[in-house]
Amino acid sequence: MRIAVSGAGVVSSIGIGVGENMSSFRDGRSGISMSPELLQTVHRLPVGEIRHTDSELCAMLGLPASCHMSRTALLGMLAAKEALADASVRDGLRVGLVSATSVGGMDLTEHFFEDYMRDPSSGRLRDVKMHDCAASTKAIAEYCGINGYSTTISTACSSAANAIMFAARLIRHGIVDCVVAGGTDALSAFTLNGFKSLMILDEEPCRPFDESRKGLNLGEGAGYLVLQREDTLSKEAYCYLSGYANFNDAYHQTASSPSG
What is the pTM of this model? Predict the structure, then answer.
């Protein structure tokens, strides 16, 4: 059985949608900024911030401005919606969603704790209900009308890759006909400060392939692919999934084994 990649959707600091992102790549535009406009934190660190407020994201999605969704969910909705539309998935297929996230709804949860730490009887509980990683998956599935199967994967940096692997297995085992697979994460002060405590953030725009590299820059965004059985395609596939693998050598939580 061949598994095709039939659709793609992406939201990042260099664009909303695949088209804007590709234009930014061609023009060499960077989304890393030393002066985030939306992220509130005492540390001045370069980040890849999407310069749209939550209210603006809601408007793009046709949702009311009062919609109380985590930023993680909103970014995921935009990317998953684009991927499904791009794939032209025909009616009658069993569609699943495998969504990956590390941050979950932390962008809302940290606001709850600002009030709670001042007064344990205060804080809006509606900010906490989006905290669980699965909450964004549920929101994306409901918005996109996906009801065949849905699950959430949270394995740090490997999350979205594992989502694609798991999606392929779902199709190969006949559980669904096609799957929207990928991941979504929003910036939050808690996450940025957490990475800073690990001492792995660069205080300048990162240089990943440079001998003088000092660390990474955090960003936010979402990206999803639509995987389908070849016989269910409505359009020519972009490519086919040829293989995958992952390993857990239990060496260290974040460091790679010296032996590779």
Answer: 0.93
Q: Which residue has the tokens 């032209």?
A: 88
DSSP state of 202: -
Per-residue confidence (pLDDT) for residue 224, from 0 to 100:
98
Residue among 37, 12, 159 at smallest CA distance from 98? 159
Classify burial at 209, counting beta carbons within 10 Å of its beta carbon; exposed 0-12, middle 13-18, buried 19 or more.
Answer: exposed
**Alpha carbon separation from 27 to 11, 20, 30 (Å, rounded):** 17, 11, 9
Give CA–CA dist 105/259, Å, rounded: 37
DSSP 193: H
pLDDT tens-digit map of 155-184: 988 999 999 999 999 999 999 999 999 999
pLDDT band at 119 (very low <50, low <70, confident <90, very high): confident
Q: Confirm if 6 and 75 have CB atoms less than 8 A apart.
A: no
Nearest to 32 by CA among 42, 47, 21: 47
Going 144 to 140 to 153 to 258, the CA torsion angle's sign is positive
